[in-house]
Amino acid sequence: MSYLGDNLGAQIIALLQSNFVEGCCAASAISLVLFDHASTISAEIQFIWGRKLTAVTLLFYANRWITFAWAIMSAATQLIEPTSILVCTAIPFTQEALALLLLFLWAAFSSVRVYALSNGSWLLVFLVFLLAVVPFGMNIYGDYWDNTFQFVEMPFAAILCAESSTMSLSLDIKLATATRVCLITSDVIVLLTTWAKSFLMWRDARRLGIPAPLATMLLRDGTAYFA
């Protein structure tokens, strides 16, 4: 009995330590998002509000405010103690839905970027979008179809939502690897397209005798985004 008690105590301590680290990481991410919104809201009002709605401005609004909503839901996940299986399931599922929307928006943003830099090459647009949207599809499967939550009361600790999956570790690794490869390939295509456009503009500027430092070209065309 002493062994079982010691083992249970060690498990509770490990769980609390894990939750503490997770909470600290979540608090850091939430703080960064809220600070970014607070420090840039004046610039948003000046440069974005009142502009005609286009695909670009819609992407901006969606990305900015869905990120804000994700931060609020992340805070709720950390602060609200689950009192039922409904609460245990609803908050994480809502947070994951917002994260999925962000993945889709980032795929759309990469596609719009390639469209602008490639002079409207729909082949590159579709290729980048299909590769970048793979994490969206994979996470739908992992977060909803193969994920369950249980309402668990830990002795002398807390009431927790236990998340479980029926996916094997080997399959999880394979899917994660495939997802990362697709996403990296998408970013490489965007990066190469950016470099090609920057080189053409730098060459034309040099031919016309216009000063065009390479660093300026890369920063303006957004290569620093991939650093």
Automatic annotation (TrEMBL):
Q: Which residues form the signal peptide?
A: none
Listed name of the protein: DUF6533 domain-containing protein
Q: What positions does the domain DUF6533 occupy?
A: 24-68
Q: Does the keyword Endoplasmic reticulum apply?
A: no
Name its species.
Ceriporiopsis subvermispora (strain B)
Identify the InterPro entries for this entry: DUF6533
Q: Do you know which Pfam families this protein is assigned to?
A: DUF6533
Query: What are the protein's UniProt keywords?
Result: Membrane, Transmembrane, Transmembrane helix
